[in-house]
């Protein structure tokens, strides 16, 4: 049987992968996907804690509630984010972060 | 959940995650994300969070990633293949991730480990007492099943009712936002 | 009433400057105000009193704006407003064709205001303020024809020379304040414990102000140059009133501190000798000048030297009396020269005049009366009475100075005779002089009024009625000797002047040393300006350039620019960099919260 720490480690590794993607990749869609990875990594931790810290013998459903909300917010975020990316691409014909530097001081 | 299944799903998930970064083609990346999320859903189900696992597949893999793919194809990004990655950001990223991993391992090493608590016939029927006698949840629990969806629905509409409604407003706002963002500006 | 006297000219200045600048009313308004102030000054004669209101309070230290009316100030006011009035009237005609009449008369009114302030001031702060204001108005009036470089330079020179003296004056005021604890004239008491050295230092510092304003050696150089201004200005400011302010102020100090203190003080001796030497040097320089105004300017210097000498000899009454008489006849001489210059189309060289007595009888006669007063024709003219008092003071306390004074009297007679003979007698030596006509009534009235004063201001009834300081005549042992000496010097001077210059067409004797004013200007410009000032300027420039400019101004600028540049680079606009920063932040937060 897998222990809590196994799940936490898996979650942490997934988060690290997402983080690395955000820092390394320059395609803004990939960066966006990596953000989703990071959110999911957090979800995994939440579900693991919900399972391993039962309330009244049952998993702590408050944790799963949070996951439910995160997924919903992520869906909304993806919708808005992708709309922004489309608008950006229309305006600049690129979605590469190193070419989107007009906010330079 | 058997230990080998945990390893299987974890490996699928991590390989999917790594290939998101590794692939140059955004479509491959998106498909890697799908793989990753399938593994993740397996882990959720292994943690007895059946509803969340299914949602993960339906919403993320089914809806969100399709949206991603749709956008990638809409934008028709071809030049990605010809780009060379610069060394400096990769090195910085790897160094930072290294530091993060060191922190992660030391945190986990300090955390007291916990085995998964049992979810057998006895615990479940004991939990049935806090629910109304002839409700669906109570009957299921007494039979030794975990009525995951029922419990989530129960929690959602009792404890998190207000939050749910706020979430509805958020989704509405997001919808309006997307419409106004993707509307072509008429000059 | 006294406040009206003080502030009426200021109001006129404001009205002239703000409203009447363009219209032709400014001269009339200024003249009217000068007449009004003269009448007020007459009404205030023989009144005494102290009117004041607090102006500023710093802790226990109070500064009042006050008017002190006493014998000294009311008498002096007659001189200031009387001559001021006549000069205003004279200027109406003299400046008739000037483009900047309004500015000129505004300047005159400003001067009247400032001079009234000095005379009426009840404390040193006020004196100093008005002291500077006279400097300003003098600057404005000397530089009235600022289009001429020489006038602009002369104005600057006058201002700077006065600044040098005023610096000492300021220190002197502070020293005196430290000694007596007050700046109000009638509250000043010198404590017994003060050593005479400190007191001498304080008085000498104050005397610096008088040296600057009354153009004593070594700061006399500005006065001859100041003749670049319009002639009525020279008459009012640089002959009769402002330059006498130093004498007035010194006498005021003597009165406030008590004349006994000055007896035998080292400072008094210094002052007396400065006055004596100035009068001698100026008289020598005057003998070789060709410009009629320059002659009068040096003569003024020399007479001011007399007055300062009298103050130094602790015979301030004699000095003030001489100030009083001198003001009238010197103003007369200047206005006379102004009339001549006006008639000869701005020709100032006496060798291009000649024979003017026949062409301009009024001017000639009044100028003659002024000359007679200046050379102190015995018993008849005012100059005689006052000069005699100074000679008496010198005789009784300092014989060498008496010798100098007698020699100066001879020189004065000599150069004034020269000026008169060359200008008015003989034949005209230029076209301008040939076609000269006598001046109109607006000019001749002030001349005649001043001529009357030049004769009668020395008489007893006049000085009594006008409330002027006049030493009580003492029949000292040397009285006959003094009289004899001055008469002999007068006759010698007259004789020498007539013999040397009668009928001459050009300068028969030439003494370059005197003509070039002992080369003092050259020495100043070469050594003080050339070496001292340039070296100082170089040092200051170096300091300014390196420290202020490079280090402070540019340095600050460059520091903020580079700092901003550094911060600007943080704002790369690159999403990756922001992500890196974001990750670093996460790592730090984990580190801080967990470990």
Under the CATH scheme, which class of chain A?
Answer: Mainly Alpha
Proportion of residues in helical segments of chain B: over 70%
Low-confidence stretches of chain A: none
The low-confidence runs of chain B, each spanning 5 or more residues with pLDDT under 50, are none
Largest sheet features of chain B: none
Gross geometry of chain A: elongated
SSE arrangement of chain B, N to C = HHHHHHHH
State the oligomer.
Answer: heterotrimer
Secondary structure class of chain A reads mainly alpha
Order of helices and strands of chain A: HHH
Q: Estimate the mean pLDDT confidence of chain B.
A: 86
Number of strands of chain A: 0
Rg of chain B computed from alpha carbons, rounded to a whole number of angstroms = 22 Å
Counting DSSP H or I runs of 4 or more residues, the number of helices of chain B is 8
The largest pleated sheet of chain A is described as:
none
Q: List the domain count of chain A as a whole number.
A: 1
Averaging pLDDT over every residue of chain A, what do you get?
88
CATH fold call of the largest domain in chain B? Four Helix Bundle (Hemerythrin (Met), subunit A)
GO molecular function (chain C): NADH dehydrogenase (ubiquinone) activity; NADH dehydrogenase activity
Protein name (chain C): NADH-ubiquinone oxidoreductase chain 5
Subcellular location (chain C): Endomembrane system; Membrane
InterPro entries (chain C): NADH_DH_su5_C, NADHpl_OxRdtase_5_subgr, ND/Mrp_TM, NU5C-like, Proton_antipo_N
Strand-helix topology:
The complex is a heterotrimer of chains A (105), B (187) and C (595).
Chain A: H1 4-24, H2 28-52, H3 61-92
Helix pairs in contact in A: 1-2, 2-3
Chain B: H1 3-22, H2 26-46, H3 50-75, H4 87-110, H5 121-127, H6 136-142, H7 148-158, H8 161-182
Helix pairs in contact in B: 1-2, 2-3
Chain C: H1 2-18, H2 26-43, E1 49-58, E2 61-69, H3 71-94, H4 101-120, H5 124-142, H6 149-180, H7 196-213, H8 222-225, H9 231-240, H10 242-257, H11 259-262, H12 266-286, H13 292-312, H14 316-343, H15 356-359, H16 361-374, H17 382-397, H18 399-424, H19 431-434, H20 441-456, H21 460-465, H22 479-501, H23 512-515, H24 520-570, H25 575-594
Antiparallel strand pairs in C: 1-2
Helix pairs in contact in C: 1-2, 1-4, 2-3, 2-4, 3-4, 3-9, 3-14, 3-20, 4-5, 5-6, 6-7, 7-10, 7-12, 9-13, 9-14, 10-13, 10-14, 12-13, 12-18, 13-14, 13-17, 13-18, 14-16, 14-17, 14-20, 16-18, 16-20, 17-18, 17-22, 18-22
């Amino acid at each position: 049987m897998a222990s809590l720490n196994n799940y936490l480690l898996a979650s942490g590794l997934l988060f690290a992968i997402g983080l690395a993607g955000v820092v390394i990749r320059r395609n803004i869609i990939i960066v966006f996907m990596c953000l989703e990875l990071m959110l999911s990594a957090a979800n995994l931790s939440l579900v693991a804690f919900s399972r391993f810290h039962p309330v009244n013998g049952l998993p702590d459903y408050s944790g799963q509630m949070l996951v439910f909300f995160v997924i919903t917010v992520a869906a909304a975020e993806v919708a808005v984010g992708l709309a922004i990316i489309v608008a950006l691409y229309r305006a600049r014909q690129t979605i590469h972060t190193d070419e989107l530097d007009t906010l330079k001081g | 959940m058997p230990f080998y299944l945990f390893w299987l799903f974890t490996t699928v998930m991590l390989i999917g995650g790594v290939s998101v970064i590794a692939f140059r083609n955004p479509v491959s990346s998106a498909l890697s994300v799908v793989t990753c999320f399938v593994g993740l859903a397996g882990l959720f189900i292994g943690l007895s969070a059946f509803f969340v696992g299914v949602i993960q597949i339906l919403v993320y893999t089914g809806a969100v990633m399709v949206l991603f793919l749709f956008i990638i194809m809409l934008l028709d990004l071809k030049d990605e293949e010809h780009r060379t990655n610069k060394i400096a950001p990769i090195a910085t990223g790897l160094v930072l991730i290294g530091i993060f991993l060191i922190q992660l391992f030391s945190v986990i090493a300090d955390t007291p480990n916990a085995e998964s608590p049992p979810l057998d016939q006895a615990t479940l029927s004991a939990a049935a007492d806090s629910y109304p006698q002839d409700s669906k949840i109570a009957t299921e629990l007494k039979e030794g099943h975990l009525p995951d969806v029922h419990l989530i629905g129960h929690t959602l509409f009792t404890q998190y009712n207000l939050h749910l409604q706020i979430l509805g407003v958020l989704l509405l706002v997001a919808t309006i936002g997307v419409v106004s963002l993707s509307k072509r500006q008429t000059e | 009433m006294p406040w009206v006297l003080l502030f009426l000219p200021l109001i006129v200045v404001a009205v002239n400057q703000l409203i009447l600048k363009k219209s032709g009313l400014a001269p009339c308004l200024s003249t009217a105000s000068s007449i009004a102030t003269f009448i007020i000054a007459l009404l205030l004669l023989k009144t005494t009193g102290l009117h004041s209101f607090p102006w500023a309070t710093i802790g226990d230290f109070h500064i009042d704006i006050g008017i002190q009316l006493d014998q000294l100030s009311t008498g002096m006011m007659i001189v200031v407003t009387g001559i001021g009035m006549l000069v205003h009237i004279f200027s109406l005609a003299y400046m008739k064709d000037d483009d900047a009449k309004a500015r000129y008369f505004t300047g005159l009114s400003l001067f009247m205001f400032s001079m009234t302030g000095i005379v009426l001031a009840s404390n040193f702060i006020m004196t100093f303020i008005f002291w500077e204001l006279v400097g300003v108005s003098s600057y404005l009036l000397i530089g009235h024809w600022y289009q001429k470089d020489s006038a602009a330079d002369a104005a600057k020179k006058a201002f700077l020379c006065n600044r040098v003296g005023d610096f000492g004056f300021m220190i002197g005021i502070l020293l005196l304040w430290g000694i007596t604890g007050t700046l109000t004239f009638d509250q000043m008491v010198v404590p017994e414990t003060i050593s005479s050295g400190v007191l001498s230092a304080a008085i000498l510092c104050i005397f610096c102000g008088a040296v600057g304003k009354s153009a004593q050696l070594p700061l006399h150089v500005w006065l001859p140059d100041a003749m670049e201004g319009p002639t009525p200005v020279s008459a009012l400011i640089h002959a009769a009133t402002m330059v006498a302010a130093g004498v007035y102020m010194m006498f005021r100090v003597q009165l406030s501190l008590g004349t006994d203190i000055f007896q035998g003080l080292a400072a008094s001796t210094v002052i007396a000798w400065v006055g004596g030497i100035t009068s001698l040097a100026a008289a020598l320089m005057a003998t070789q000048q060709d410009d009629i105004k320059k002659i009068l300017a040096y003569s003024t210097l020399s007479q001011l030297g007399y007055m300062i000498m009298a103050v130094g000899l602790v015979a301030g009454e004699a000095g003030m009396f001489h100030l009083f008489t001198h003001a009238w006849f010197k103003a007369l001489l200047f206005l006379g020269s102004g009339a001549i210059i006006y008639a000869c189309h701005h020709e100032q060289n006496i060798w291009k005049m000649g024979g003017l007595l026949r062409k301009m009888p009024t001017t000639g006669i009044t100028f003659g009366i002024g000359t007679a007063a200046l050379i102190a024709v015995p018993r008849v003219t005012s100059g005689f009475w006052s000069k005699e008092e100074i000679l008496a003071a010198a005789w009784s306390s300092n014989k060498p100075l008496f010798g100098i004074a007698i020699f100066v009297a001879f020189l004065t007679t000599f150069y004034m005779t020269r000026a008169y003979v060359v200008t008015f007698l003989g034949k005209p030596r230029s076209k301008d002089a040939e076609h000269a006509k006598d001046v109109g009534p607006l000019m001749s009235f002030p001349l005649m009024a001043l001529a009357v004063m030049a004769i009668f201001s020395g008489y007893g009834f006049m000085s009594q009625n006008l409330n002027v300081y006049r030493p009580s005549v003492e029949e000292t042992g040397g009285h006959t000797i003094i009289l004899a000496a001055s008469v002999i010097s007068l006759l010698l001077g007259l004789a020498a002047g007539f013999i040397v210059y009668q009928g001459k067409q050009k300068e028969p004797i030439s003494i370059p040393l005197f003509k070039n004013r002992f080369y003092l200007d050259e020495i100043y410009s070469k050594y003080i300006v050339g070496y001292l000032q340039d070296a100082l300027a170089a040092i200051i420039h170096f300091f300014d350039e390196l420290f202020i400019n490079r280090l402070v101004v540019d340095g600050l600028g460059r520091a903020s620019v580079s700092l901003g540049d550094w911060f600007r680079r943080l704002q790369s606009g690159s999403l990756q960099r922001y992500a890196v920063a974001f990750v670093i932040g996460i790592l730090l937060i984990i580190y801080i919260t967990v470990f």
